[in-house]
Amino acid sequence: MACVLTVGLAATAGVAAAQSKDGHWVDAGQTVWKDGSGECWKSGYWTPAMAIEECDPDLLKKPTRAAPRPAPAAKPAPKAKTLTITSTQLFAFNKSDLSSDAKARLDREVLSRLNEFATIQFINVYGHTDRIGSAQYNQKLSERRANTVKAYLVSKGVAASKVETYGYGKTSPTKSCPGNLSGKALIDCLAPNRRVVVEAKGMPKN
Question: Which of 17, 59, 68, 187 has its CA 20 to 30 A from that of 2?
Answer without folding.
Answer: 17
